[in-house]
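Methods — Computational structure assignment.
A single polypeptide chain was analysed. Its primary sequence is given first, followed by the predicted tertiary structure written as structure tokens.
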Amino acid sequence: MQYPNDSRRCLPVLDQDRTLIAVIEMSLSSWLVAGIVPGIERQPLKKIEADEHALLKLLHRWHSEAVKAGRKIARIAVAFEAGRDGFWLARWLRAHGIEAHVIHASSVAVSREHRRAKTDRLDTEMLKRAFLGWLRGERDHCKVVAIPSLAEEDAKRPTRERESLVGECGRLVNRMKAAFVRLGIRGFNPKLKKAPERLDALRTPEGESIPPNTVSAMRRDMERLRLVREQIRQIELTRLERLQKAPEEGANAMVRLLARVMGLGIETADMLVQEVLARELRDRRAVARYSGLTGSPDESGRKHRQKGLARAGNARVRRGMIQLAWRFLMFQKNSALAQWFRQRTENAPRTRKTMIVALARKLLIALWRFVREGVVPEGIVLRPAS
């Protein structure tokens, strides 16, 4: 059976006599390219500048060498590890007719020696072995990453930027509150709009005004907080405008559908759709595994235990789903999932924190089926369609 996005193995059959294989070890200043060229006994290794045109020229040169050796090349497969450069090179290579893959770095097996040798040359050898095994169709030899389009990457930016700005708001407020406590001033809320105007009237327990350098720092932090809040508001308004202009197009339809679930707002719906639900995942197990909500068993002989969450997936989805699961218990009390949670924790309240992860996993799968297949989770209360 062929799946829409099977990262565990390569579906096309590998004809090694007609396939040119290359892997790239990328750095900021240079790239080390290792290849397997049909008809050439040596396995070439070339260090080039960090330039895509130089890479394309090198691949064409190896292609010509294979043709001179009497081999007809029908496929050029290139791979590199996921890292700082992202996916732009893979998209560029595909636009030029070259098959490109991005390998998940943690899926490449490495030596477990305490002080193993590590060089770019050795890294390309390991990467080449892993990629060759994956091309042969060996299951779980290594895992490739789904390459998003530029538009799909851009669609994630608002949610991630808002998350960063919200964190900055918290840091600014905590820093100002700590400064007030250090001076012995309590009960003052630095988040108020008129907080900068009231700074001059504040007094310490000794009856003295706030020192001038501290006041200046407070005003700068309050101005920065105002600016960050304004940026958050702009992101939210832009998102609403986008949903209103194209309500039934692509991911927008999923966001509007999810937002109908009581207890699930636009922000959470947009995050879930852009990060996980819009992806072409294989099945419900892949959905749970991508979110990092699956367990890590440790079994050997008579030993059977769980080491906790795998945490190998998307951390944003994992945090968001655990928070949503707690809200779900408040707003969807009569749903089948909420009743399932209460039945298992009624006589064991200490297991609530453990079982909330299981509820988050079940809820994510239910929402995935809801937006993909239209299956409404049992007992879920929906808002009227707008």
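Note: The mean pLDDT is 91.
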